[in-house]
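1st attempt posting a full record on here, be nice pls
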Amino acid sequence: MMSVGTLCLTGFMILLSWHLGLSMELTLVSYLGTLFSVIAGMKLVKVERPTAGLVFVLLSTGAFMGNQILEDWAIEGSWPQDNGLGAGLVIGMLIYLLWVFAARASERIELALDRDTQTVLVTGLLLLLLMAPPESTIVFLFDERLGLLTLIGLVLASMALLADRCAAQLRSRILLLLPVLITIPVFNEVLEVAQRPVIAAIGNLMPSPRSFSPTGFSPSQQLSASSFLRPSSRAVMRIHGEQNPGRYLVGNRLSVLDNELVWRSPSSEALTLTSFDAELTEANNWRYPVPNAQSPDEIYPTSYTVHSLTSDYFVFSSPGTTHISGQFDGLSKVSAYSYVWTAEFDRGADRRWQIETGAQSQPEETPAQYLLLPDFWDSSLQDKSEEFLGDNRQMTVQNLVRYFTTRTYSLRTNFDDQRPFHDFFLNDQPAYCFWFATGAALAMRANGIPTRLVSGYAINEQISADIWLVRDRDAHSWVEWQDESGYWHTVDPTPPSIESFFGGYESSTVSRWYHYLAGEWQKLIDSILADALLANAIRFGGILILIFLFVREYRRLRTQNAALDTRARRWQKLWLRFLQKANLPAQPAWTASTYAQNLPETWSETNRSAVQRFLREYDKQRFARDDEAAIKSMEKSLDSCIRAMAAN
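the predicted structure (as tokens):
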């Protein structure tokens, strides 16, 4: 029968299985986890504790199977479909915990918590807290969202620690948990805040909490100044190309600024490209032509591949992009004028796309929205803007860019609360990219130049001859303006002193090496996958090798432990025979030395000497290196002891 502590631990493992299964939308994980938790708790099957080698093979198998199989089995839009490797690792961790739970030693209440139980509780709680609670388990307490399974898991883990060691005071000890439960709403908010940097540090191994967005981009983005105030060094895209990809990756193009200083784009007819608009390349990718009105004088032909490291479907491109290729059935924008492209990636396909730029472009008409000024625009702003007027549009733009780039860049701003833009523009206050791009765009419009604000990423970090890395911190905004012929030009009015900003968000050496190796590995995989026969041979061969390593390591462990059990039984049999012949009581806590010091006073000196000689020899030989020789020697010594006692 299970003790209360084991019962709580079994309940904790069942709850963890449901938490992970529901989070991944794989109920099979929940059901199998429940079944094996009960089997492990009742100790229905004897298993050996996993060694480090077995754990490595187990996690490697989980990652491999997750990447190769789970992404195809998972529900459309679920986390495992987006990241099969991460989901496979998580399932591997769950199997490891169930294995340790089943292999743990029998409980001894007088001892401290055993190592296996500690491993199960600590690792299980980390998984429980790192993974955002499934929406189906969310409850509301005092208008706060609470993960019910997370809350119950914390209680069960606490009870598993207390139950068997505080049985007499269990009820009073459980009452100590009430203050924690009462303050759960506060802890819930703290937990969500704490999850963000942890998840940012480990990449997208775990699904993101509801309030954490790594990029800030969306099909209907509304861009405010605060979008650039929470940067991190998390990598969001990796770029491969034999040529320099240029300076910018365009996300959204926005054209209307409201009185709250929020940029957006007006509703317009959506733009959708399907496979009927594309051509199929030799690499089995669809190649979509995209509208391009960028000035041909500023664009040189280039081609490169972008690999998204996030779980979204947004496709970023360079100014002057003429074609976007990839394994997706369509590209779409909710607004033909401005919004970010989204792609319908094939199920299980990497989120990658190829960008082609070139001089192929067509000028476009100027919608009225590109000349709109916000309601707060007044004569003081107009007068300041007209100071930069040149003989033509290009000279006016050059005057404005020259002015803004001589100012000071800073993420810390201290504008007038009532008139922040006036304070920035008229008083030359330090600011960051949003303000410089906004100021330049509006000043150009005030001089009759159509403009739009662009949000995206600036490419700053090159980690090898053909690999560039884009991070959250590289989120940036700049301006595009239209010349008299209808072509668009890219300008960046942000001061060069922005370089000082990156000092606070430096890339670690480990991160750079990781992404370099990941990029090189990706190129190797791509070359292998180009041959379908070779790819399948490696895929199934890898599975067979992992299974072989697992079986071999487990058999070695069983053989080793079986040999240890055989030797232990022989020593135990020898000791019990000694106690029986010497007519001594069994004292599990006594050592051979303790027995030698507590022999019966009624014994003769001959018997006492014979037994003490045996006990001294036993104490010396019990842990000798040559176990077989030692036990044979002790069997002879016991026979001599028995003969001496019988003769007396």
